[in-house]
Prior knowledge:
Layout: E1 2-5, H1 13-19, H2 30-45, E2 52-63, E3 67-70, E4 75-77, H3 79-84, E5 90-97, H4 101-111, H5 115-147, E6 150-151, H6 167-171, E7 182-183, E8 189-190, E9 194-202, H7 210-216
Antiparallel strand pairs: 1-2, 2-3, 2-5, 3-4, 5-9, 6-9, 7-8
Helix pairs in contact: 1-5, 2-5, 4-5
Amino acid sequence: MTIVSGIHISLDKRQVLRREGIRQQSSVKPEIMALIDELLASTYDKHLLEPAIAYDVYAISEVGHDSVQLDNSTEIRSASLSSLISGGRELTVAVCTIGPKLEKQVTDYLGGREPLRGLLLDGIGSAAVDSLVQETCRLMQNEASLRGYQSSSPISPGIPGFPITEQWPLFQLVPSEEIGVRLAPSGIMVPRKSASMVIALGEQVTVRKQGEACARCNLSKTCHYRLVAK
């Protein structure tokens, strides 16, 4: 198992606006842009981000039509995963989080009748998780390179073909408690600003750009956060 902390996340307004469902910066009032700048600055000044990643790598023993068997006898049931990792040799299971501080500040803003600040800060947190997921993918690219492999695109429980109930076996495979992440009875992660994912390592694995992954999602026509494939 590996724990990575002390990660620096650099955010800009474009990332935050995307997480607020806003695509055209020119449509945003100057006072809103100024407030985003203020909240970004306070996020760093108050150390509201505590990014950390926990992951482990397992050998794949069998890939079925809708399940993957690992060498420790764990079975992960997912048709999406099976199609993604055909040709994979190993599977990385990872959990990442920005910690609970930003989430608490959002709650304080909402409880203190400052909903706009709460909403915008929540978007900053979501953008930070997006950035941390990309950092996790870069780490897995390094792991793959050391083995002479490629790394696949990440997928997470909750997407079509990967039931949220599969969070439970995944969390048995990674030391998430060491970075302060646990599962609620619903399968939702606590803190909420966290992400879990699996990434295959192998000579021939499926790699998709973010826009391509969004295009395959069944919410691609309506999602405010989607990226367009180029």
